[in-house]
Amino acid sequence: MTARTPDAEPLLTPAEVATMFRVDPKTVTRWAKAGKLTSIRTLGGHRRYREQEVRALLNGIPPQREG
Description:
The chain has helices spanning 14-21, 25-34, 51-58; strands spanning 11-12, 39-41, 47-50. By secondary structure, the protein is α+β, with helices and mostly antiparallel strands. It has a single domain (11-58), classed as Orthogonal Bundle (Multidrug-efflux Transporter Regulator, Chain: A, Domain 2).
């Protein structure tokens, strides 16, 4: 387990995102590679996804790109 500070943004694993969308975790990885979903890499190379962005996508709200 990692310690989170109170202001840390919640991150989800590919399996958690896949459960929310009812798809395979590999589909979530494909979405990230296609740019449909922003992924963050952990020090170990694993992908994590911002909960706020995932929930917005789930609700049909188009993602806002930082720029």
